[in-house]
Amino acid sequence: MAALRSSDYRNALEVVYTAGEVTGAVAFPEPVLEALRRLVPCDVVAFHEHSESRRRVLVHVGEPVGRLTPEIRAAHRRYKHQDPFRPAVGARTISDFVDVRTYRRTSLYQDVDRPLGITHMLQLYVDPEVSDARLEFDRAESDFGARDRDVLDLLLPHLRQFARRARPRARLARLSPRERQVLEHVADGRTNAEIAWLLEISPETVRKHLENAYAKLGVHNRTAAVAAAFGPC
Questions:
Q1: CA dist 160 to 59, 67, 132, Å?
Q2: pLDDT for 71-104, tens place per residue?
Q3: What is the DSSP string of 118-169?
Q4: Per-residue pLDDT tens over the stretch 7-23
Q5: pTM value?
Q6: Cβ neighbours of residue 97 under 8 Å, at least 6 residues apart?
C-alpha cells in the first residue's frame, strides 16, 4: 500500500463532505466529480450508471484531449463489447484484466480511446453486487499508480454509502408527483378509500396511480412499492 500524504486525506475528506451534501437522484453530480478530480488528477472523471434508471446516467467533468465526434460515438457503440473492464471490488486499471499491448490492438482502443487521448484508465465500481454504478478516470499522459488506487479504495465504503442513500431518491424521481403522494399515504397505512377521500379523487384513480407506480418501481404490491420508494436499500 502506498503511503498517503496529509493532503490526500484532506482531499478525500473534501469528497466526503461534497457527496454528503447531495440531495438529488444522482449520487455523484459534477461538484463531487470535481472533488474527485482534485483527489486523483486526470483529464476526465465520469460517473456511469444504468441499472437504477430506465435511462443511462452519465455525468462527467474535465475535457478529453481529443474531440468526441459522432464517428467516435458510433465506434464506441460498435466496439464496446471489447471493453476489458468487469465489475470488481476496488480500483482497477486495464492491466488488471488484459495485457495492455493486446488491448491497444483492439478497434475500441484504436477508434475510440486513442483519438480521445485516453491512454490510461482507472475504474472504480461503487457497489458491484448491487448495481453497475462506476467512476472512471482517464489520462493521456502518466499512468495511474498505487497511490491513486489506495486513496480511492480508502474512499470506497463512503462512496458506497452515498450511492445507496441516493438509490431511493432515484426511484422516487421516476414517479409523478401524484403517484408519489399516493404512495406516501400508503406508507402511512391508509386504504385506497381513505386516500381517495383525502386527495378528492376516486378510489379507481388511486388504484390506477398505484398500478403505474408498481410498473415504474418494478414491484407488484403495496408493501414492495413502499419499500422500493422509501425503505432502506
A1: 17, 32, 12
A2: 999 999 999 999 999 999 999 999 999 999 999 9
A3: --EEEEEES-TTT---EEEEEESSSPP-HHHHHHHHHHHHHHHHHHHHHHHH
A4: 999 999 999 999 999 98
A5: 0.80
A6: 84, 85, 86
**Where do we find the cell 455525468?**
59
Quote the CA–CA distance of 16 and 161 in Å, as a whole number: 10
Q: How confident is the model over 36-75, as pLDDT tens digits?
A: 999 999 999 999 988 655 567 889 999 888 888 999 999 9
* Residue with grid cell 495492455, as numbered in its chain: 100
C-alpha cell at 52: 437504477
Retrieve residue 190's grid coordinates: 391508509
**CB of 179 closer than 8 Å to CB of 230:** no
Q: Where are the alpha helices (DSSP H) in the chain?
A: 6-20, 30-39, 70-79, 100-103, 107-108, 114-116, 146-173, 177-187, 192-199, 203-217, 222-230
User: From residue 102, how far is each of 19, 87, 92, 93, 135 by CA, in Å?
Assistant: 37, 20, 17, 14, 24
